């Protein structure tokens, strides 16, 4: 089924005889209620996760039936959007009993969603659609207790996002002009843009990007540079197979194109008072946020030791290796180890990043930063944990990946 032929099942609109509950704006639930809510939400979501595609399709059918004007907030091609919804739900479900961490994430998400011109009624409509979709696919397993848990969970989500958006006084998005575009491999491009107004972001974070070739199809990318006084930001983009946005950026972007950038998001950061040695692990263009951290750290007077493993399938995939090796000349605190799964490279290791890193030890004395594809992050963290690394020492942004 192509993007152009995607169909939605439009359920009957809610009526007075069969109302769908609008998740309310609620106070944060007590600790005991949060534990029980988390248990019910996780168990019920696991029961429908195998039907993710159908659930997403039904969800959007309800959403656009209840709130027709919400359709204009989404791109014409909804295939990728359905996947993004489920990834967001999975991430929130995993964090539902970690209120501080969840509040930080939802606050960022709420500020970011201002660029869509989201209104209060859209939050209500999303809640109605979510409850309707879960109720339909859980069928007889849907109970009043389960409904209360999901209504409460979505109430927390909606409350945090709305409050964060309401408190934000900065722009909803920034205009950025492409000043440089160059292919560094067949499917990786380095793009430099300049913003008209300063975009405050933290090295290691990420921002949402909309390009003129793909209107309303926002995607997350990490700047590969720390903030500069001249307003320039560098992005490294890999044209993934089937990636509408990434392929347009790599193969069709030209200097003079005007992008829109959303506010800064993400949890990766290194404070200038950091003294603990660092281990950084970057796969492919996932090295971009780590490059931004190194760019920022290169301006500090004192730096902790940093060992960066940069991996790719083949030697030619290590497009930033020359830049990293050049950085080691001026930054004696930095060590760089290239890793390839196929072929060899001077001074490099052979194998997956997960294997290359853990065969050198457990790195128990270091804070660990991991960035790359979802599968690479999962495999690397699993290996590190098996080797004895403390999970609390591992930092990554799983939701940034698209």
UniProtKB/TrEMBL annotation:
<keyword id="KW-0479">Metal-binding</keyword>
<keyword id="KW-0411">Iron-sulfur</keyword>
<dbReference type="InterPro" id="IPR050415">
    <property type="entry name" value="MRET"/>
</dbReference>
<dbReference type="InterPro" id="IPR008333">
    <property type="entry name" value="Cbr1-like_FAD-bd_dom"/>
</dbReference>
<keyword id="KW-0813">Transport</keyword>
<feature type="domain" description="FAD-binding FR-type">
    <location>
        <begin position="171"/>
        <end position="271"/>
    </location>
</feature>
<dbReference type="InterPro" id="IPR009050">
    <property type="entry name" value="Globin-like_sf"/>
</dbReference>
<keyword id="KW-0521">NADP</keyword>
<dbReference type="InterPro" id="IPR000971">
    <property type="entry name" value="Globin"/>
</dbReference>
<dbReference type="InterPro" id="IPR039261">
    <property type="entry name" value="FNR_nucleotide-bd"/>
</dbReference>
<feature type="domain" description="Globin">
    <location>
        <begin position="32"/>
        <end position="166"/>
    </location>
</feature>
<keyword id="KW-0561">Oxygen transport</keyword>
<dbReference type="InterPro" id="IPR017927">
    <property type="entry name" value="FAD-bd_FR_type"/>
</dbReference>
<feature type="region of interest" description="Disordered">
    <location>
        <begin position="1"/>
        <end position="24"/>
    </location>
</feature>
<protein>
    <recommendedName>
        <fullName>nitric oxide dioxygenase</fullName>
        <ecNumber>1.14.12.17</ecNumber>
    </recommendedName>
</protein>
<dbReference type="Pfam" id="PF00175">
    <property type="entry name" value="NAD_binding_1"/>
</dbReference>
<keyword id="KW-0520">NAD</keyword>
<comment type="similarity">
    <text>In the C-terminal section; belongs to the flavoprotein pyridine nucleotide cytochrome reductase family.</text>
</comment>
<keyword id="KW-0001">2Fe-2S</keyword>
<dbReference type="InterPro" id="IPR001433">
    <property type="entry name" value="OxRdtase_FAD/NAD-bd"/>
</dbReference>
<keyword id="KW-0349">Heme</keyword>
<dbReference type="Pfam" id="PF00970">
    <property type="entry name" value="FAD_binding_6"/>
</dbReference>
<dbReference type="InterPro" id="IPR001709">
    <property type="entry name" value="Flavoprot_Pyr_Nucl_cyt_Rdtase"/>
</dbReference>
<dbReference type="InterPro" id="IPR012292">
    <property type="entry name" value="Globin/Proto"/>
</dbReference>
<feature type="compositionally biased region" description="Basic and acidic residues">
    <location>
        <begin position="1"/>
        <end position="10"/>
    </location>
</feature>
<comment type="similarity">
    <text>Belongs to the globin family.</text>
</comment>
<dbReference type="Pfam" id="PF00042">
    <property type="entry name" value="Globin"/>
</dbReference>
<keyword id="KW-0408">Iron</keyword>
<dbReference type="InterPro" id="IPR017938">
    <property type="entry name" value="Riboflavin_synthase-like_b-brl"/>
</dbReference>
């Amino acid at each position: 089924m192509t993007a152009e032929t995607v169909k939605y099942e439009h359920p009957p609109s809610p009526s007075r005889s069969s109302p769908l509950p609008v998740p309310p704006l609620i106070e944060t639930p007590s600790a005991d209620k949060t534990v029980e809510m988390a248990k019910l939400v996780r168990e019920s979501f696991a029961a429908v996760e195998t039907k993710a595609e159908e659930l997403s399709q039904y969800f959007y059918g309800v959403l656009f039936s209840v709130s027709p004007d919400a359709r204009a907030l989404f791109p014409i091609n909804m295939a990728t959007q359905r996947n993004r919804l489920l990834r967001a739900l999975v991430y929130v479900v995993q964090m539902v009993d970690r209120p501080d961490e969840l509040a930080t994430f939802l606050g960022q998400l709420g500020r970011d969603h201002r660029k869509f011109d989201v209104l209060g009624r859209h939050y209500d409509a999303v809640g109605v659609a979510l409850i309707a979709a879960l109720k339909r696919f859980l069928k007889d397993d849907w109970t009043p207790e389960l409904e209360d848990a999901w209504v409460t969970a979505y109430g927390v989500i909606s409350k945090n996002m709305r409050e964060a958006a309401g408190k934000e006084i900065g722009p909803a998005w920034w205009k950025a002009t492409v000043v440089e575009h160059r292919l560094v491999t067949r499917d990786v491009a380095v793009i430099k843009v300049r913003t008209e107004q300063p975009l405050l972001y933290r090295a290691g974070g990420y921002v949402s990007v909309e390009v003129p070739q793909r209107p309303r199809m926002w995607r997350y990318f990490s700047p590969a540079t720390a903030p500069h006084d001249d307003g320039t930001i560098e992005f490294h983009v890999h044209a993934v197979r089937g990636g509408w946005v990434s392929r347009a950026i790599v193969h069709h972007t030209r200097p003079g194109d005007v992008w829109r950038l959303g506010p800064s998001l993400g949890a990766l950061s290194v404070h200038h008072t950091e003294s603990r040695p660092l281990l950084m692990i970057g796969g492919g263009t996932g090295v971009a946020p780590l490059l931004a951290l190194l760019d920022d750290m290169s301006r500090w007077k004192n730096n902790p030791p940093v060992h960066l493993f940069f991996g790719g399938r083949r030697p030619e995939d290590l497009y930033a290796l020359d830049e990293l090796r050049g950085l080691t000349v001026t930054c004696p605190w930095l060590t760089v180890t290239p890793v390839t799964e196929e072929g060899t490279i001077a001074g490099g290791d052979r194998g997956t990043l997960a294997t290359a890193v853990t065969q050198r030890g457990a790195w128990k004395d270091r804070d660990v930063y991991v960035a790359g594809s979802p599968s690479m992050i999962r495999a690397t963290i699993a290996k590190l944990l098996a080797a004895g690394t403390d999970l609390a020492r591992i930092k990554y942004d799983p939701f940034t990946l698209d």
